[in-house]
Amino acid sequence: MSSQTSSTQQSSTPCPADWLIPYREAFLAELEGLGYASGSIRHFRDAIDLFREQVASRRLGPGDIGAPCLAELHDAVPLPPSLNASRRRRSHLARFIDHLVTAGVIVAPEVEPLPPPGRLEQLGADFGDWLRLQRGLCRSTVSECQQFLRHFLIFIFGAEPGDLNSIGPEHIRAFLALPPAVPGRGQNLEKKATNLRRMFRFMFATGLTRRDLVSCVPKVAARSKHGASCHLSSGEVRKLVAAVHGDGATGRRDRAIMLLLARLGLRSQEIHALRLDDINWRAGEILIRGKRGFHDRMPLPVDVGEAIADYILNARAGRSRSLFVTLRAPHRPLRTTHAIRRMLGDAFAKAAVPSPKGGVRTHLLRHALAVDMLNRGNSLDEVGDVLRHRSRTATTIYARHGIETLRALARSWPIQGDPR
């Protein structure tokens, strides 16, 4: 019966392109090895079979698919009515076509070479490379500085940069006096001045300017740092840690991240940069890749180490050497720190801890750790060591919370006749 049905179908529809079957099976086996769920693999198989039908209807062999034909085949594959399902099918087709190109079955479509970058784009690219390699800045800060460079040069020269040696103090003052493009959302003067100094150091260090313009940037009074005043109590931190739990992959990964935030005060970028090789299990240490390329070894608390080990042994998958990876196959490293901030926001909601005025940020747990250390009698120097501050000034913002420490430094109220 089945053979009769099969022959009937073959007489009414084109025969499938059997030469694609081994490549399909190899591709699906690769997905399975990467940890893809059976449902996802089934969606890939459906998309590939629809592609095979289009190949068979045109009676194309392995050497017949070129760039124009490939585009026609891709567009001819029917798409489901749902927008998300259509995007998914196109993505699955593109992945399989890349597999065929890698296998040498079809020729990759020629990509038109990009036009050479203009001088403004080249300056931005060189500035970004210099900030990463010479200053050790993270990707988000580098991107912000590149946008700042573009904004400054367009303000001075227009669309095409002129002679950089013509920039003078009058241009700097005029730029600093500019109002923000969107009221209330522009960079403050202190941040503008910092970015100008970075930019002029780059120009002078790379020979783009003959004189160092850093000294021409006026000093801006630093605003009082109020960030540490909106801190979490130790009880609220315990509630947040307790709210992140579970036996699944999400719960295990998020608990390890939460304990790194709460116990070691790590920045989100530092957690994002952790790798499996950074943990010395015998010595009980963890390597932290901090700001500006500094590396520090920190003791690994027992509860943090147990949470990380539980995540690695029972939840983590994939071949990446990054410590924290995506939950879905192919389990790549986390692309950005948004997943860490989203996890913290969910913890605030689960623990019923009110969100601070400035919003939920990972630095809240870093500030809470510093304040808790001061309340337990630790010195500012000890707090600075744990937070890995390079300057003692960065730690003094927590002094207002060490009331007993400040009381010992305060002078007695003058009393008439008191020799003191």
Overall description:
The protein folds into three domains: 94 residues; 101 residues, Orthogonal Bundle (DNA polymerase, domain 1), CATH 1.10.150; 179 residues, hpI Integrase, Chain A. The relative contact order is 0.07. The protein is mostly helical. Helix 11 packs antiparallel against helix 13. Strands 1-2-3 form a three-stranded antiparallel beta sheet, with no helix packed on it. The N and C termini lie far apart (110 Å). The N terminus is likely disordered.
Bulk shape:
flat
Q: CATH-wise, what's the superfamily of the largest domain?
A: Intergrase catalytic core
Spell out the helices and strands N to C.
HHHHHHHHHHHHEEEHHHHH
- How many domains? 3
Low-confidence stretches: 1-15
Strand order of the largest sheet: 1-2-3
Q: Radius of gyration, rounded?
A: 29 Å
Quickly name the level 1 CATH class of the largest domain: Mainly Alpha
Look up the CATH topology of the largest domain: hpI Integrase, Chain A
Characteristic key phrases:
3 domains, hpI Integrase, Chain A, disordered N terminus, mainly alpha, 3 strands, 17 helices, 420 residues, single chain, 53% helix
Question: Mind sketching the topology for me?
Answer:
Elements: H1 2-12, H2 21-33, H3 38-57, H4 67-76, H5 83-103, H6 119-135, H7 139-157, H8 169-176, H9 189-205, H10 234-243, H11 249-264, H12 268-272, E1 279-280, E2 285-289, E3 295-299, H13 302-314, H14 338-351, H15 363-375, H16 380-387, H17 403-409
Antiparallel strand pairs: 1-2, 2-3
Helix pairs in contact: 2-3, 3-5, 6-7, 10-14, 11-13, 11-15, 15-16
